[in-house]
Give the backbone structure.
Amino acid sequence: MIKTKSLKEPTEPSDGLRILIARGRPMYLPKSEENWDQWWKQLAPSKDLYQAYIKHKTIDWDTYTKKFMIENGICRVSTCYLGIGKIK
């Protein structure tokens, strides 16, 4: 089973393996308080895509997920925008 959780939430024994998926280290969290087991930078969205969705809010969730899948080679532009090969 895969669960998602904010790094700001306390760790619990039921968390299992905690994986950080982010390009950069969270600035608000001191290095001594890192609470993840592995850091997978390669799965994080590009800085531009992240900012377009989170910071500038210039794209919606549907557009974000399509662009994320294209960036990470999960699907091609044509199949993502036609709804083929979409992750549910």
